[in-house]
Amino acid sequence: MFVYSMEARTLMLQITPRERAALQLLADGKAFNEIAGSLAVAECELEAHLTTLFARMGAASRTEAVSAAFRRGLLTVHDGIHEVDDGRLES
User: Fold this and answer.
1) CA–CA separation, 22 vs 38, rounded Å?
2) Which residues contact 8 (CB under 8 A, 6 or more apart)?
């Protein structure tokens, strides 16, 4: 059983399933337009939501955000299968 730190648990409460899906797709090396397409959002909307998410995470770049997400237990290595709901990214 994996035990999350208080910091990770707090951040998990602030990250929506769609934001976590976007982070996972970034971690998988997907291009920005592929991520937007997978999540059915405009690229400009995705950029705005990720910029806000990165600020909440204290990350200055996509690489820092993905690294921080792995360190905090928000992302795990998996087989590349993603389940994404049909909702839109939330602020």
Assistant:
1) 9
2) 72, 73, 74
Q: How many domains does the chain divide into? A: 1
**Block residue for tokens 């690294």:** 67
**Token representation of residue 48:** 């705005």
Q: What secondary structure letter does DSSP report for 41? A: -
What pTM was computed for the model? 0.68
Amino acid at 90: E
Taking CA atoms, 83 is separated from 8, 11, 15, 64, in Å, by 21, 20, 16, 24
**In terms of residues, how long is the chain?**
91
CATH of the domain at 46: 1.10.10.10
21-70 pLDDT tens trace: 899 999 989 998 999 999 999 999 999 889 988 988 888 999 999 998 88
User: What range defines the domain where residue 63 resides?
Assistant: 19-71
pLDDT at 88 over 50: no
